[in-house]
Structure formats: structure tokens, C-alpha cells
Amino acid sequence: MKDKIYNSLPAEFQNLACSLQGLKLKRERMGGLFQNFLQAYLERKDWSYEQLIDYRDNRLREFVKHAYETVPYYNDLFKNLRLTPSDINSIEDLKSIPVLTKEEVRKNPEMFLSSKADPRKLIKLTTSGSTGTSLNIFYTKEQLQEQFALWWKYRAQLGISLDTWCADFGSRTIVPQKQISPPFWRISYPLKQVKFSAFHGNENNYFEYYKEIKKRNLTWIHGYPTVITPFAAFLLDNNLSLADQIKFVTTGGENLYDFQKEQMFQAFGVYPYSHYGLAECVANFSEDIDHKLTVDEDFSAVEFIPDGGDTYKIIGTNFSNYAMPLLRYDTNDIAVITKRSNSVTKREIDHIDGRSGEIIYLPSGKKVGALSALFSQTSFIVEAQILQKKDYSLEIRYVSFENPKSVESDLNLVTKLLKSRLGDEISFNFKKLDRIPRTSRGKLRYVISELENNQEIKSGGIVKND
């Protein structure tokens, strides 16, 4: 009903509605203890790695005690394992308890709620993973404010201030889909955002986006990589550039791939920064000014469990959400780490190698990841998606700008790279689309697998992921 009313309003009243919603969000996210949290994070940014680890483990000990005393699931778990909170003194001691899966939380969310949490004050967030299955997370406004304080610390280190206006390329439907003429954006004055529609971005409309960014002299672009990249590709294809204006590009919510970084750099004159975070608040990684992606040790306790070669499962413990503690929570995400940490340097991640659902499987049981490299050298493919069918074959869906010879060259390159990775085990074909469908939250899933529902898959082949 609200959407119907909103869509019936003229653009100027939709701007007002966006601003009213923005004011509400600003109070929730950046009111209360936000400034206190932000100041504390900024003070800790110059701490030594040893100081950060001591701080992390102190928070961990306090949080484990809270979970044991007030959360039914952990009270039962510790008793069954004959453990007490005093047995957990550091991140290494967490190995005494089993890894927690999303399915366990999904089935019994009330078992993870603290008895000290006031149900009337809890905020409910429904999130979904690569299978689209929903998961309910409950948290307090204080936890939300701490998370946003951490994110603004990351932005502040790059040079972005709370007063910096942003060209926001998010996923919300803020412009009615039936609208066919500009403006294809709405404004949230409290959040200082010009929100560009993800659903109106095409070759006919991107020039309007470009003119609006130029007119408003916006210097910061933020959003999903799969929403920003097609706009960057349009600029390149039409010999347009924002390199003389844009100072910052930041991304989140999805993996950021090398080919996307290169397109953004060519269009905007700066390489994008990314951060990794989750609604569950069990892990957060931020890029510094030198594009080093490191663990935010003072926000959560992150473990990296070997998963073969240089890949590691990301397992995290949140200690900011006292309403819904999650200890050793399996994010189902994979990190690539080649740089070994020591006692004086922060833990650095090369990149997130796909949410773990971004993997294809061969009949032999072999898993093939790092698929973004297939498109890292292409010039005219704007976005792509891989569908793995029940017979293991692949359908490579892609969107490209019209330039048949160049697109053919790109497809030949992808074919060569695919064959080098897959051998002759499975077949594949290409399918051109005008637009690749997004999830209900506006995200583009890089790999879609029909194998997850195929009951004939050997247990060693497919692992159903969230």
C-alpha cells in the first residue's frame, strides 16, 4: 500500500518522502551513541596490532560470559560440552565449541535471543543468502550505531566526511518503474544522497545520470558493483569521463571483481574501495587508503579456517549485538589469503573469492571458483551471470553494448579461459540478455546453480550454501 501511494506521487513529493525516510534512518544509525562509537574507532585506528588483539579478546571474554548467562542455546551448549566462560580467553579458545550454521539459527532464532533484550526495542532485519532462503536477525539500535560508526571510520580514513554528498547506486526501487522520462533519481537531504535508480539504468538513460552528477558536482559514488559498473561501461563506450570530478568510489553488498575495478578506474579516474560486512555483524573487513583489505579486529572475532590452497572459510563471532549473540558463525563466504600475518601486522585479505555459492561443480566433484577472472580482460561485456544446470552444463548470460565484432572477440576470450579451467568435463553456451535479473534486494547473483536441488549429486560434490 505504501509503495502504491509513493509511486502515485509527483517527483518532488517523492523527494520529500525519501528525505523523511532518510531522517528516520539518520536518527537510527547516527543518533544516540554513534558519535561516541565513531570517536572510539578513530582513536583505535593508530593502535598497534597487539593492542587491537588485546582489546578484541577482552571484548570476546565479556561477550562469551553474557552469551552463556543469558542465551538459551549457549547455556545448553556449554553445559553439554562441560565448558564455562572462563575456558574462553582468546580467539584460539573458540575452537572448543562447534561452528554455528545459518540453518541452526534459521530454525530456532528465539534460542539465540538474550533474556536481557527487551523485545519491544529490538530491530528485526530479514536477510537472504545465495539460495534466497530468509534469515531473521534481531539487534539493538546501539549495535546498529556501532556498525555504522565502523563504516564511517573506514570512510573517514579515505577522506570522506559526513558532509560529503554521494551519488548512491543502490538497489531500492526509488523511481517508479513505469516512469520513462527523467529525473531517474531521488534526493535524501538528511543522508546527503542523490539516489540513482538501479532499474532505469540503460543506454538511453545513463547520459541523464552523467549530466546530473556533473551538474551537482558530486565527488563520491557509492553502491553495488553490479549497478555502478554498467554506468562506467556506458561512459567508456561513449567517450565520456568523470575523472576530473570524482574523488571516491566505494562499493559494498557484493564482491568487487578486478574487471569491475578497471572499468571504474577508466571511467572515474580512481580505483574503487570496498568493504565486507554482514547483517549478522560477525566479521568486517575494510580497505585502507592503499587498498589493503584488513580485518577490523576491534569489531568482531574472525577466524579463517583452511578450505584448500589459499582459500579460507570466514567464521565470525559478533560482540556488538548483545541481543542476539552468534559465536563461531559460518558466514558461508570464502577469503583468499596469501599474505601471512605476524604479531605486528594486521591480518590482510587478498579478496573475497565469491560468496561460497559463487562456485561451479564438475561431475568429478571438483569445485571451480575465482570465476570473475573470466571477464577481467573483456571490454564490451558489461555484466555476466553463470547458470549451472542440472546436467552440469553452463549457460553464460551476458549483457553488452552493441559492437558485434568486439563482443565476439570478448566471447572468444571467455571461451578460451573457460576451457582452460573446465577441460572437457562439461559443455557451455552463451546467451545475450538486455538485462540480467536481480534478486528481490536488487543484487546480481554471479552464479546460479540448479544442482542445489538435484538429489542425485554425490555428497562430496555439492554442498548447499546460504
Based on the model shown, name its key terms.
globular; nine-stranded mixed sheet; 32% helix; four-stranded antiparallel sheet; alpha/beta; GMP Synthetase, Chain A, domain 3; Rossmann fold; 466 residues
Q: Which CATH class of the domain at 31-148 and 278-354 is shown?
A: Alpha Beta
Strand content: 15-25%
Structural class: alpha/beta
Biggest sheet descriptor: 9 strands, mixed
Question: Which stretches of 5+ consecutive residues score pLDDT under 50?
Answer: 453-466
Number of strands: 21
Oligomeric nature of the chains: single chain
- The overall pLDDT, averaged over residues, is 87
- The CATH topology of the domain at 31-148 and 278-354 is given as Rossmann fold
Q: How does this structure look, described?
A:
With 466 residues, the chain is of the alpha/beta class. Among the domains are: 195 residues, ANL, N-terminal domain (Rossmann fold); 94 residues, ANL, C-terminal domain (GMP Synthetase, Chain A, domain 3, 2-Layer Sandwich), CATH 3.30.300. It is 32% helix and 22% strand. It contains eleven helices and 21 strands. The protein has a nine-stranded mixed beta sheet, with helices on both faces. It has a four-stranded antiparallel beta sheet with strand order 11-12-13-15. Strand 7, helix 10 and strand 8 form a beta-alpha-beta unit. The longest helix is centred in the first third of the chain and has 22 residues. The chain is globular and about 65 Å long. The two termini are 31 Å apart. The C terminus is likely disordered.
